[in-house]
Amino acid sequence: MDVEQVTNWPFDEIEHSYDAKDTMLYALGLGFGSDPLDKDELGYVYEDGLIACPSMAVVLAYPGFWLKDPQTGVNWKKLLHGEQWLEIFQPLPAQGCVVATPKVDFISDKGADKGAVIYWSREIFDQASGSKLARVAGSTFCRGDGGFGGDNLPGPTPAPIPKRAPDSTCTLTTLPQQALIYRLSGDYNPLHADPDVAGAAGFRQPILHGLATYGMAARAVLKTFCAHDASRLRVLDVRFSSPVYPGEAIRFEFWNEGDDIFFQARIAERDAVVLNNGRARITP
Q1: Beta 260-267 vs 233-240: how paired, if at all?
Q2: Cβ proximity of 120 and 132 under 8 Å
Q3: pLDDT tens digit sequence for 204-226
Q4: CA–CA distance, 81 with 110 (Å, rounded to integer)
Q5: Residue 26: closest CA among 50, 9, 10
Q6: How many domains does the structure of the chain reveal?
Q7: How far, rounded to the nearest angstrom, does the alpha carbon of residue 129 sit from its chain's CA centroid?
């Protein structure tokens, strides 16, 4: 990894226009509308009174797979999405134009045998009004790029998961074709579509995008705590821990702790935790 080059990567301001069709397609990629008679979810996939799912912010003004650029010196084949953080300041418009300038916040050197972690972020603004809509941030685990002599800097403290039984749960079943739908929102990695690519990576079939599982966490929070009122969800943070295969049922387990809702998500049939250290915050 060329640490100086990555740290000071010359991102341009990104202008991203999207319409109602894009908003509905994103929601369909999270499984909204699986039951076409569910009127509570219909608002996210139907143009009459269309609502944007708050987690859609993670695909807006996305800089693309910039770490694949040879100038970064990063071993892109060994990258993993580690964590995702989102803070919503205003409800996302169902259609419009946003602007953002991504940046690298810092890089933590975990050692030659452990890799490095890139922490990045972008603030998203409504172009027309100038209002700040959201802050999107995350970490990328670079398994092949540690040991460059940098500091082992700590990232944000993961949200704690209580030891007691969950206070509530929500189970959502993914669609068999869900990865093929979700990829149309901008992530065309063949790992999520091509059985041969998935097999070469050690998976029995194409896996669901981590950010699709993340968006399903937003869907579960909206259903369980917000009566599908998207304006109430303000924070959604997670740590990715294992992939989901399209068609599997995801069980979201929630703990209420003051202003925060902590959660994890698991595939019961495989006893696999797929999202961990989750935290959501909603307005009353």
Answers
A1: unpaired
A2: no
A3: 999 999 999 999 999 999 999 99
A4: 16
A5: 50
A6: 1
A7: 26
Q: Residue 206, CB half-sphere, CA atoms under 13 Å: how many?
A: 21
215: left (phi over 0), alpha (psi -120 to 50) or beta: alpha
Domain span holding position 189: 3-282
Listed in sequence order, the residues at least 6 apart from 37 whose beta carbon sits closer than 8 Å to its beta carbon are none
> How would you label 160-191 residue by residue, b for 16+ Cβ within 10 Å and e otherwise?
ebeeeebeeebebebbeebbebbbebbbeeeb
Beta partners for 63? none
- Residue 151: how many CB atoms within 10 A of its CB? 9
Catalytic residues: 187, 192, 207, 210
Contact 168, 254 (CB under 8 A): yes
The yes-or-no verdict on residue 258 having pLDDT over 90 is no
Distance CA(278)–CA(254), nearest Å, equals 9
Cβ neighbours for 163, distance < 8 A, ≥ 6 positions apart: none
Bridge partners (DSSP) of residue 122 are 136
| Partners of residue 238 on adjacent β-strands | 84
CATH code of residue 112: 3.10.129.10
Dist. CA 256–CA 265, nearest whole Å: 15
Closest CA to 221 of 240, 203, 234, 211: 234
pLDDT score of 263: 98
Its pTM stands at 0.94
What is the C-alpha separation between 14 and 153, in angstroms, rounded? 29
How far is Cα 169 from Cα 165, in angstroms, rounded to an integer? 10
